[in-house]
Amino acid sequence: MATATIIDGKHIAAKLRAVVATHVAKLKKEYNLVPGLAVLLVGEDPASQIYVRNKGWQALDVGMNSFQYTLPETVSLTELLKYINDLNQDHNVNGILVQLPLPKQIDTEMVIEMIAVSKDIDGFHPLNAGLLVLGGVGMIPCTPMGCLMLLKQYLGKLASMHAVILGRSNIVGKPMATMLLRENCTVTIAHSYTREIAEECRRADILVSAVGNPQIVKGDWLKPGSTVIDVGINRISTQYPYIMDKLVGDVDFASAIKVAGAITPVPGGVGPMTIACLLLNTLIATCRQNGISEPKIKLP
Ligand code: NAP
Question: How many angstroms is it from 212 CA to the middle of ligand 1?
């Protein structure tokens, strides 16, 4: 029985980080500039703490400065906005990321809108979101950017392919659909109100799943030979051979590899690409803020 090629996100992310590191070293040598990434964490959610620590380590590893701030769970919106305003003014900070989700008392949209558009390395600010839709030059959200890089590495040109995106969130589904449209794919977006979702998926040359529902996409939902990008990160408990927590994607990997042509694993697929793209965005933001032409990234 045929088995899908595993798209190794860890390996491709390492290549991207190496390219970013080369450009960071060049910026330092030629302009005496070191890109600075500031990450703001509110509260003590263990998963968020791990994400934030990873981002910091990886920023340092590519030669950037890393600034991390942890604010108490009880912080007020006013205090948080003031913090962001200070980071907006700080010339050592080129990229600002506020780790989501935020506590209930905080209006997430107001927080996102407070981040200076030029430092919005997550690409969540409404102006950057609008620029993406209109085909302008803004900051592109990291997760769909990473997915697109994986697709291009594996498939080359994507034009004329039928892409189905499961999920329509502002941070993954919608920007992913826009980016694939820009690559001249025919795009279908499916969500929780979509009828005959398996049928929609079976039409996809490219399937990107960003639903957050463990293993709902089964092998018989896939078109044989299709390329499957699994964005979902879901924690499940297994009983056998012993009780443990395990991370799985939205795709039932065991049945999907028998049908797909290529597939990303979870973990080790999209996740590492998201952080590598965050570093790339910080580099791009630094160049733009200093009037330096931004690097054209080509992965080896
Ligand atoms: P989200 O904001 O919760 O959006 C989920 C989307 O999936 C919604 O549009 C929802 O539809 C749709 N949906 C939910 N259940 C569905 C079902 N049974 N059938 C069809 N559509 C369904 O989630 P998100 O922030 O986009 O994240 C999605 C997943 O990706 C999560 O597991 C998250 O942890 C993961 N993620 C991973 C990375 C990474 O770096 N690997 C980055 C970001 C997110 P409605 O709009 O109709 O409600």
Answer: 4
Domain 32-117 has CATH 1.10.150.130: no
99 is catalytic: yes
- Closest-CA residue, ligand 1 atom 40, reads 271
- Between helix 270-289 and helix 142-155 the angle, nearest 10°, is 110
Nearest CA to ligand 1 atom 8: 167
Q: Is the pLDDT of residue 241 over 80?
A: no
122 is catalytic: yes
pTM for the structure as a whole: 0.97
Taking the C-alpha atoms of residue 267 and residue 275, their distance in angstroms, rounded to an integer, is 13
Nearest CA to ligand 1 atom 41: 271
Would you state the structure tokens that stand for residue 141, as one six-digit string?
């959200």
* Alpha-carbon gap, residue 200 to 185, rounded angstroms: 15
Q: Model confidence over 278-298: pLDDT tens digits? A: 999 999 999 999 999 999 888
Nearest CA to ligand 1 atom 34: 233
- Indicate the fold that domain 142-271 takes in CATH: Rossmann fold (3.40.50)
* Residue 99 CB less than 6 A away from ligand 1: no
Residue 244 is predicted with a pLDDT of: 81
Band of the pLDDT at 18, cuts 50, 70, 90?
very high
Nearest to 95 by CA among 286, 236, 296, 300: 286
**3-class DSSP state of 124:** coil
Please give the single-letter amino acid code of residue 277.
C
For the chain, the structural domain boundaries read 32-117, 142-271
Which residues is 162 bridged to in the sheet? 186
Instruction: Using the atom order of ligand 1, give the atom closest to the CA of residue 249.
Output: 32
Q: In the annotation, is 246 catalytic?
A: no
**Structure-block tokens of residue 2:** 């045929």
The reply to whether ligand 1 has any atom less than 6 angstroms from the CB of 265 is: no
Question: Contact, 168 vs 191, CB < 8 A?
Answer: yes
Q: Which residue, chain included where needed, has tokens 């896939």?
A: 222
Task: Tell me whether the omega of the peptide bond preceding residue 214 falls within 30 degrees of 0, making it cis.
Answer: no
